[in-house]
Amino acid sequence: MYNLDETGITTVQKPGKVVSTTGKKQVGATTSQERGELTTLCCAISAAGTHIPPFYIFPRKKMKDNFLNGAPPGAKGCANSSGYMNSEIFVSEYLPFFIESTRCTPEKPVLLILDNHSSHISLEAVSLCKAKGIVLLTLPPHCSHRLQPLDRAIYGPLKTFFNAAMDDFMRMHPARPISIYDVGNLGGIAFSKAMTTTNIISAFRSTGIYPIDSDVFREDEFIPSAVTDRPLDEESTPMAANQSLVTPDRQPAPSTSHKTPEEILPLPKAGPRKTGQTRRKVKSAILTNTPEKERLELEHASRTTKHKTTSKVSVTAKRPKQTKQKPNHPESSDEEDLPDDLLESDEESPDDDEPEPPSAPCSDDINVNTHVLVTYKVGKLTLYYAGMVIKKDDENITVNFMRRVMDSATIAFVYLENEDIHVVDFESIVLVLGDATQSGGTHRVRNRISFQVDLSSYGVGLR
To answer: How far apart are CA 451 and CA 461, in angstroms?
Structure first.
């Protein structure tokens, strides 16, 4: 049975207590002036009182071997530009390190308890754990400060010893700031002092995980959660138990029973929940079980399909007109029973939501250096972009697109420094813009291009 969690250690320490004579008013301690760099330390402890070597994530692009100088034996590290754990590092770097250290197999599985961070519950991580004999059990949300063994009895002493080691380093090396190359050595000193068998066993015992103790938490420790207790139906507030029904003919009898402090001064309550919250609710679960794994697979497939749908831009022909067809009614029905809009002429009604593109121009009207308006179809949206033809062949044309200037009083365009060139077909051309007019005046607006054609109804966007 293992518990895994991450914590951060920085290169700037907070000075501890300083011994000085009584009455002295100016007592100082040495610390670094820089903001500091954060390094992530990932640890795993066992309910048997053992631990596996630490895993460092350094805020660098590339990993160097001297980052781990002085680190505990068997420690491993990797580099990430942010210095934080992510799903890619967890799957490709840490899980193989954990499997090698614990020697778990499907025949001899291990239980790994961790929180619901997104880097821990990816589909790749669950698949690898299930194949290698790791049973993933997640903690309930907002409970890790009580149920996480590493948070209860390990990381507190670890940071205390790490801060003390940094104080000693600053005294031994005056005027020298602590760098990322010293984290491994200082972390190794603190790790050996904090990761003791007594602390690890106490960590699991204090959470009630091992030995199992369902009454490890007192009743008063649940009081902070009372401020968010809400009835199932928030619109109707239930009547208090000590309130009696008051009628015009009957007055409430005086109560002689004792009142609790909560009835005299009730605890404050949190406000109503915000509507439109899109955050998915999570709960404690065994992720390697088949139902949970299938749920993750469905979510992964849904995200992948949605990403492909939104990122794929297809070039299509002009949008056909949408007409309202007159329904077929029986010959015996009376015209007076029909709606008024069906008694009118059969003319096609215009689409008020989107402009109606004109017929595509002839290919003979499109030549090199001709400015055209191109349409793109993205899902249910029809987008329009302006550009200049730079190449033409029998089937397709090559267009250098322009970007619309949004701060201009009129619809104006500018060419990008890095040309935005795309190949489109003739059917996607909806309009020939004609001759371009270049703006004059200041240097900021002299490169703007406008056209005599009214483009306000097309909603020409950025490119």
So the answer is: 15
For the chain, how many structural domains are there in total? 2
Is 6 exposed, middle or buried, given 0-12, 13-18 or 19+ CB atoms closer than 10 A? buried
pLDDT of residue 407: 61
* Top-confidence residue, 427 or 62: 62
pLDDT tens digit sequence for 20-31: 888 888 877 777
Task: Report whether 77 contacts 57 (CB < 8 A).
Answer: yes
Residue 427 lies in a domain: yes
Q: Are 149 and 41 in contact (CB under 8 A)?
A: no
Domain finish residue from 179, 207, 235:
207
pLDDT, mean over the chain: 80
pLDDT at 385 over 70: yes
C-alpha 126/C-alpha 103 separation (Å) is: 18
> Residue 279 CB: number of other CB atoms within 10 A?
5
CATH number for the domain harbouring residue 181 = 3.30.420.10
pLDDT of residue 451: 84
167-190 mean pLDDT:
91
Domain boundary among 154, 179, 207: 207
**Which residue type does 176 have?**
R
Pairing mode, if any, of strands 429-432 and 76-79? unpaired
Residue type at position 126:
V
269 within some domain: no
Residue 196 φ then ψ, to 5°: -100, 160
Instruction: Establish if 406 belongs to a structural domain.
Output: yes
Residue 248 domain flag: no
Per-residue exposure over 202-231, b if at least 16 CB sit within 10 Å of its own CB, e if not: bbbbebebbeeeeeeeeeeeeeeeeeeeee
pLDDT at residue 450 in the model: 84
Q: Which residue range(s) make up the domain with 188?
A: 2-13+34-207
Where b means 16+ CB within 10 Å and e means fewer, 29-68 reads eebbeeebbbbbbbbbbbbebebbbbbbbbebeebeeebb
Say which residue, 332 or 28, is predicted with more confidence: 28
What pLDDT is stored for residue 98 in this prediction? 97
pLDDT, residue 345, reads: 42
Tokens standing for 447? 């490169």
